Automatic annotation (TrEMBL):
Protein name stated in the entry: Manganese ABC transporter ATP-binding protein
InterPro entries (UniProt xref): AAA+_ATPase, ABC_transporter-like_ATP-bd, ABC_transporter-like_CS, Metal_Ion_Import_ABC, P-loop_NTPase
SUPFAM superfamilies recorded: P-loop containing nucleoside triphosphate hydrolases
Family to which this protein belongs: Belongs to the ABC transporter superfamily.
Amino acid sequence: MLEVGNLAVSYRGLCALDNINFAISPGQIVGILGPNGAGKSTLVKAMLGLVPVSRGKIQFNNRPLRQQLQQVAYVPQRSQIDWDFPITVQNVVMMSRTVRIGWFRSPSRQSQELVRSALERVGMWEHRHRQIGELSGGQQQRVFLARAIAQQADLFLFDEPFNAIDRTAQDIIFDVFRELKTQAKTLLVISHDLGETLNYYDRLLLLNRHLIAMGPRSEVLTTANVQQAYGHDLSLLAA
């Protein structure tokens, strides 16, 4: 169980998030929605301890999440990654194993097999020796998904994984999401897409500095909630 209680985050005296409360059971895919500046990425970064929290608690399985970050796989926005860094696809995925094996130890056979299996699962094993910056946007996202899989985490956080990717990559990512769900993993996915992909989520979390609504799509994306979050009708946003 992931629990966030009375969470607040401020930057330079400005409120980024306030009074955020929710709980997510294992085996759920939760989509985080809201306009630009709503605090979606801030929420994820606060959970990871990447930004200071003004108040509140973030617990996973009844323990502070920051004490068990090895159980968290995080895939940031593509714009936050240095695609010119000279590293191969295979080594990007192998980096997920360093928490378990240590920075200066050679990868175990188990780690090598996990990396290969993860890359094969997302259709990127044949590209394992290519530099990460040589790939298309969809291929890059599949590599970082493979890295998350190889980490063998219990909680997965994805920040806009569907931006600037092709349909093949999108389908692969959602297939993997469903597999992780059957393994009782917990997935939080930040998204701007208000179209058909919303059907893939078990629950939606609608945010605009405050938690506006959380639950199934029919309860969250009401006219009143959408107007409160975005200031516009849903039909205009999805157009």
